[in-house]
Amino acid sequence: MGGTMASPQAPVVPAAPEKPKPPRRTRLPEAVRRRRRGENIAGFLFMSPWLAGFLILTAGPMAASLYFAFTDYNLFDAPKWIGLDNFTEMFGDPRWRKSVEVTLWYVVVGTPLKLAAALGVALLLNQKRRGQAFYRAAFYAPSLIGASVSIAVVWKAIFSDDAIVDRTQRAIFGMDVGGWTGDPQWIIYSLIALTVWQFGAPMVIFLAGLKQVPRELYEAAEVDGAGTWRRFWNITLPMISPVLFFNVLLETIHSFQIFASAYIVGGGAGGNACGPADGSLVYTCYLYVQGFENSRMGLASAMAWMLLLAVALVTAVLFWSQKRWVHYEEGSR
Questions:
Q1: Where do Low complexity bias regions lie (predicted)?
Q2: Helix (H, G, I), strand (E, B) or coil at 80
Q3: Where in the chain are the domains?
Q4: Which contiguous run of DSSP H or E holds residue 261?
Q5: pLDDT tens-digit profile of 59-88?
Q6: What are phi and psi of 42, to 5 degrees?
Q7: What is the Cα 225 distance to its own chain's centre?
Q8: Which of 20-24, 90-94, 189-193, 281-285 has the lowest mean pLDDT?
Q9: N or C: where does the chain have the smaller number of CB atoms within 10 Å of the terminal CB?
Q10: pTM for the whole thing?
Q11: CATH architecture of the region 85-325
């Protein structure tokens, strides 16, 4: 054969595309850079009062209390490092365990009752009626004055022996407990009644949430024959569940921090600073007694950090549980 076979050609490999070069950073004019630098300095100057207050009044005392929690400190002598002795003594103290029990009872009973009263009044105020502005202001007023010392003094007088509450329950129910503030079993309920009376703040938040529920949902439910309870359970609660979660979280934290009302209402009753037979010995009240009456600031600091950890744990559990019962609008998370 005269011809020769041609050798197969190697496949052509396309060249890799060149990586785009990053754009060059243009240097800003000197005037622009000076203006931005001045804006940053002005921003830090406006923030400096808050930063100074945070460092001096919040971060500094927190760091100091964390150190004091591991020391023997009595406010007069230099702190002495003792390690975990404060926590060991705290866990073995029967009064500390009593304060935990009283506080948990106050939180578990008082918070749901307060939120139930707030939601109930908010549902009533959400209906169109004359004088709504007056009723809202009247129901909100106890939240503004309820935490004052004067109201706690009046509350103590109302629930004392042979006062108006004692006479009313004796005349209507035939009960004679000798005044709630003088009875170790009843004094905590006077504090719960005080916190329920201050339902104005969560009521306003509930009312704002109720205003956002579309009326079309209720109209459609009425057409389908749903009653009042069914509409409340299947429409109102799911629609205001983010607001309900916010109120539960806020009021739970506030309940753990109760001090002024418990100290004033229970002060002097039975010769005890926190109620007769420690009936109103909430956690912060016992912390105050250890820190300022017994001059054991190291132990009080350890108690304060345990309270912080407990509140953080409860907050984490609430945030974890919201996935099961809090319903957000699509894309609003």
A1: 1-16
A2: strand
A3: 85-325
A4: helix 260-266
A5: 999 999 999 999 999 888 899 999 999 999
A6: -65, -40
A7: 39
A8: 20-24
A9: N
A10: 0.83
A11: Orthogonal Bundle (1.10)
